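Appendix B. Raw example, untouched.
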Amino acid sequence: MNQLELCVLNSNRVLPHEHYDASRVIKLSDGLKKANVLRNPPIAVEWKGKYVVLDGATRVTALKKLNCPHIVVQLVKQDSQDTVISSWNHVIRNIAIERLLDVIEHVPGGNLRILSGGSMPSDRTSRRPLFTILDRDKTMYAVQVSQDNSDKHIDLSNAVNAYTKLTNVIRTLDSNVEVIQNNIQSFSALIKFPVFAMQEILDSAISDKLLPAGVTRFLIANRVLGINVPLNVLFSTKSLTQKNEWLDEAITKKIHQNKVRHYTEPVIIVEH
């Protein structure tokens, strides 16, 4: 393994932990073909003989769509203190709160129920909500599964899919409704998700129980960007061992040429 913890893996051993947006996959696969390079490697964790992608599901799926046999990933350890798990909040716009609640209650399967402020149990041992909703008036609603044997990953995905079909969702780390209302026009509600444990995420991925896209968030220390691996290397008939040797040599050369920079300060990236 090289200093940057990058390696080449068989594509069939790399699994997503979340669903992907099919339209984004098509757009990215077209972009990869034109650029012919993988610029930023996905982040993955080795788990039970597989490699679960924490960040980069669209890139992995796009490469698989192109029938790329191998993928370069940056490996992190599942118990590393350099990996911090959190959750995105979803800002909902242009939908009446009654419409939003109705859509969620009537997702396929009918396993969800919504409790409002006064009816929510105060007992901390009660079932954890799938997510909570805060409307413009700061009224809180808790969305729970109504059956103990319900598959919460399917119910959660169905709920998120239901409301994302109604409007464009904005991801945010902010949880202050007043601040959000001042900054976002036509604000309707804020959806807050619980933080998932790493092992829960990994076990779900191995079991093919995917979480919705845009819910989990991973803060990875020492994330590698701009590696620019030519796709013709990944598509070549060379063995996995040969490709890893090529990658190690390429990284060592970059380091010796002083072309690897380690930035510790936060940065802001403006996308084109």
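End of appendix B.
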